[in-house]
Write a structure and sequence with these properties.
The model has no long low-confidence stretch (mean pLDDT 92). The longest helix is centred in the middle third of the chain and has 32 residues. The chain has one domain. The chain is elongated, with a radius of gyration of 16 Å. The protein has four helices and no strands. It has 119 residues and is mainly alpha-helical. 61% of the residues lie in helices and 0% in strands. Helix 2 runs antiparallel to helix 3.
């Protein structure tokens, strides 16, 4: 968590420290789904324009890389909230396990009170 005790967007999306409850975790995922959906819609809208399609394809690649890093950070904080080590977030990249882990992290309540990862 940031030094001032307030949560920032940078902390939410790009920091592995601290804990994250179910709702912000789900909303963080939903944000990246919406951003990716927008970029894909722009790609389909520009199918006939090669230059625009190439630009939107580049935007999709960059967005996908940033989203993947962010989702790992969200998952690390969510795992911390339920008392597990953040290294388990790597399981989000196993295709068969990914949906199961996502649903589990969205539904499993965090441990009440402070734990080794924060208050």
């Amino acid at each position: 968590m940031p030094a001032e005790g307030r949560q920032t967007m940078q902390w939410l999306f790009f920091s592995p420290s601290g804990r994250l409850s179910r709702l912000p975790y789900f909303l963080g995922w939903l944000f990246w789904v919406a951003v990716s959906g927008f970029v894909l819609a722009r790609m389909y809208a520009n199918e006939e324009n090669d230059i625009a399609l190439a630009l939107w394809t580049l935007v999709l690649v960059v967005t996908s890389l940033v989203a993947a890093a962010s989702i790992v950070m969200l998952s690390v904080k969510r795992l911390h909230d339920i008392g597990y080590p953040g290294a388990l977030a790597i399981c989000m990249f196993i295709p068969v396990l990914s949906p199961v882990i996502f649903i589990t992290l969205c539904l499993w309540p965090g441990k009440p009170g402070a734990n080794e990862y924060g208050p």
